[in-house]
């Protein structure tokens, strides 16, 4: 079986790289895309879903492959989906 790459929450990755939201907005705008600090904050928190185009620009701004990131919304869904399985195993 092939090992899957690790999936990292976007905010944690940005912070680990030492980047601020302002840094990422500037990098996205350098790519010719529109972005705002509040929009990216909502994307990172899982409040709003980014368009595929913005998500790709975000990944490029951080220098990562899009398959290595996840939104907070996806993380919550994974935890919720695994909870019944954990209860059934006990």
UniProtKB/TrEMBL annotation:
Q: Which InterPro entries match?
A: Cro/C1-type_HTH, Lambda_DNA-bd_dom_sf
Among CDD domains, the record links this protein to: HTH_XRE
Known Pfam families for this protein? HTH_31
Q: In Gene Ontology terms, what is one molecular function of this protein?
A: DNA binding
Report which residue ranges the record marks as coiled coil: none
Quote the Gene3D superfamilies the UniProt record gives: lambda repressor-like DNA-binding domains
Domain named HTH cro/C1-type is located at 10-69
Listed PROSITE patterns:
HTH_CROC1 (PS50943)
Q: What is this protein called?
A: Transcriptional regulator with XRE-family HTH domain
Origin species: Catenuloplanes indicus
């Amino acid at each position: 079986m092939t090992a899957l790459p690790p999936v990292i929450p976007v905010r944690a990755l940005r912070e680990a790289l030492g980047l601020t939201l302002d840094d990422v907005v500037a990098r996205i705008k350098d790519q010719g895309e529109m972005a705002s600090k509040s929009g990216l904050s909502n994307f990172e928190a899982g409040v709003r879903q980014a368009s595929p185009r913005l998500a790709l620009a975000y990944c490029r701004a951080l220098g990562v492959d899009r398959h290595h990131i996840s939104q907070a919304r996806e993380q919550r869904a994974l935890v919720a989906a695994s909870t019944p399985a954990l209860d059934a195993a006990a």
